[in-house]
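User: My instructor asked us to take a sequence, write out its structure as tokens, and then describe one feature of it. I'm not sure where to start. Here is the sequence I was given:
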Amino acid sequence: KKIASNNKLKNTEVIALLGVLYPTKYTDLRKDFKRYLDDSDHILANVVDLEISDILHSIINYYRPYVKKIYDSIEWPSIKSDPKSLQAYLKSEYELESSVATTLYFTDQMNKFDLTDEENHLLYELAIFELLKLHSKTNSKIKELEEKNNNMKNKYNNLMKQTKTMKRNKENEILNVKKIYKEKIKDKDRLINYLKNQREQELYEQSIQVKKLNKEIESLQERMFREKQTSYNVINKKDKILLFTDRAHEFDKMVEKELLKDLESLEEYLISYDNDNLLFVDVFGMGTSSKQKIRRMSKKNKSKIKILNGSSLNIIRNIIYYIEGAGLN
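Assistant: Let's start with the prediction itself. The structure tokens for your sequence are:
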């Protein structure tokens, strides 16, 4: 009956609850569920006979937590427990807005007074009057707010109408201006396109020339470098450098053999490092952890290590630039 009287549950939720809580009854009622599943009424409406009290219990239990929150949020006044004081208050100061009777009932302060059944009944009736007065006052406030809201809506609607009218007038004005200057704009666009195309053509031709010159310069530099490389070692002892690398065979024609060191000997070399030579380390293909290890060794021994990466030709160029004072790329 509790499930049947709860009109807040969906039919699918009712079926699920019955299946979990009452599996035996669920099996018996499956045929009825299929028959009434598409009905708009509660799926158990035609299966379980309900009393009004069952429905009222369900409604009260549903709203009880909500009402309790409201109750807990209200600051209820304390009524003095002296019957004479209550009598004096009711005779001289009482108004429906004071909600004295309502407070007595809702806060269980009735126990302070030794009241007769008639007095209890009359206070209960007075509490109803107080609630009706509060309801009336609340309705008046709601109507006042609704009226203000309607006025605001009317103002908003009027403002929107004015805005639409202004927007429409402005659009018409813009259209008229466009019509007047349409030909002038077309002529201007044609001129701009012509100048733009002409400028793009000039830039394109200039870029071709620049690319051509750059290729010629690169070719000339490469030829000069190769000629210098084949004639003698580009880097020798007088440069006071050492190159630590795992691919010495790629540098033997450009760097004197004595200046090429195996990477594995770097740590041992740093122990007796005398700061006479600049140290260059080829880290091409090396992992991050290995690079960090080299940096730590350099910092620990206060030595000057330059880490280089890239092709062998690029590394040689960077060493030359550094030696000549141009700095590393």
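For the description part of your assignment, you could build on this observation: The chain has ten helices and four strands. Try explaining in your own words what that tells you about the chain.
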